[in-house]
Amino acid sequence: MKNRVVVTGMGVCAPNGVGLNDFIRSLQEGTSGIRFHQELQELKFSCQIAGKPIFNDDHLNKYFNSLQQRGLNASGIVYGVMAGMDAWKDAGLTMASKETPDWDSGIIFGTGILGVDKFRESIHLIDEGNTRRLGSTSVMQTMASGISAYLGGILGCGNQVTTNSSACTTGTEGVLMAYERIMAGKATRILTGSCSDSGPYVWGGFDAMRILPNAYNQEPEKASRPMSASAAGFVPGSGAGALVLETLESALERGAHIYGEVLGGAVNSGGQRGEGTMTAPNSEAVQRCIVEAVENAQIQKGEIDVINGHLTATGKDAVEIQNWSAALERSGTEFPFINSFKGMMGHCLAAAGSLECVAAFLQFKEGQVFGNINCEDIHPEILEVVDATKIPRETIAYRPKIIAKASFGFGDVNACVIFKAYKNE
Predict the structure, then answer these.
(1) Secondary structure of the chain: what % helix, strand, coil (to 5)?
(2) Could you give all domains of the chain from N- to C-terminal order, each with its CATH number?
(3) Which residues form the signal peptide (predicted)?
(4) DSSP secondary structure string for all residues of 376-387
(5) 105: part of which helix (H) or strand (E)?
(6) For 375, which of 59, 160, 228, 283 is 20 to 30 Å away at the CA?
C-alpha cells in the first residue's frame, strides 16, 4: 500500500516576508517585496530593482553562532538554512541526538547557483596567492549540495540528503521527489525546499538578455506584472522556501498540524523541440505535464478549483493560460481561480517553486485565494480564455479543495504537483 503524504511544517525567507506570519500578511494584503537597489544602478544595470529578503544581524543570530558566521556570505545558503530550520520547528520536530542520526528523516533541498559571492571572493584570494585565507567554510558555501549538507548536519538527518537543480522548476520538482520517496516507503519524512542567491552576479546575465523590465526603476512595486497587458519582463528575486513532508501515519501519531496533502504530480521536458527552446516552453510538453499530474493524483480535471501558475510577467503568460485551459479542458467561468505570487516577490529563480508551494498551502490554512497585483489590465489574449472573475486582484474568501501548482523552467523543463485540503477522517 502506498503511503499518503502530508505537509506538517513550512518556512520562508522571501522578499516580501521572512517567517510565515510576515509572509502571510504580505500575500493577503498584496504587499510587494521588490525594491530599488543602489548597487545595480552603480553597476549600470538596465533593471535596477529586485526582490531580496530583508533581515538584520539579530535575526541571523537565531540561526548561526558567531563561529558559523565567520566568513559566511548572506546569500542562498543563509536563506535556505533559515527557511529549512523554521519549517522543521514548525512541524514540531527536533534535532537528532549527537550520537545517532535520524534514519527516517531526509533532506532534498535544491538550488540553481550557490555561493556566487563567496566563489568570487575565493577566486580573488587564490589569484593573489592567499589560499590559506579562504576559510574553512568556503567549500561548503560554493558547492551546490552545500545547502542540503548544512541542513543535514544541523538536523542530523540519516536518510537521503541531496540537492536537486532544475532552474525555475527546482522547488516544485523537489516536492515531488520527496513525495515519491515517502510514498514508496523509503523515508518517513523529508525536509524539501530550494534557495537562490541574490546580487548582480546572479542577475546580470538576465539583464544582459534584456528580459528584465527597465521602465520601473522609480516604481519598483509596479514592475512585476504577471498576466498584465503591460508586462515588460520578469523582476529577478531571491530567497528560500521549505516544507516538511511526511507520512500521514507519522503525522497523526505525532499529533502534528497538517497543512494539506500531496496527491501526486509529474515532471517532463519539451526537449527544446518544436516551439520549445532554452527560454520558451514547448506547449505540448506543458500540457502533457499537467494532464499526467492530474492522472497521477487520481483526480478529475474538474476537481481543481485553484491554480498557482508559473506566470513570470513575460509575453509567455498568455500561452501558459492557453495551455492550462487546453490541458484541463476548461475555460471562461469554468476555469479555476488562478494566481501568480511573482507580482509580490519577483521571479525567485530556483527558489520560486518552493516559495510558491508554501504560499499555495497557506491558502488552505487561511481559507483564501490570494490576489494578483499589477494586473488591472489583464492581457486580452488571456481574457479570451478565462473570465476576469477567475483572476482575483485582491485576496478573496474561498476555501480551496484542490490546488494545482506548476513551474516551467529554463531549459524547457516542467513540473506540476497537486495539493489537496486535509480533513480529519
Answers:
(1) 40, 20, 40
(2) 5-254 (3.40.47.10), 264-420 (3.40.47.10)
(3) none
(4) SSB-HHHHTTB-
(5) strand 105-111
(6) 283
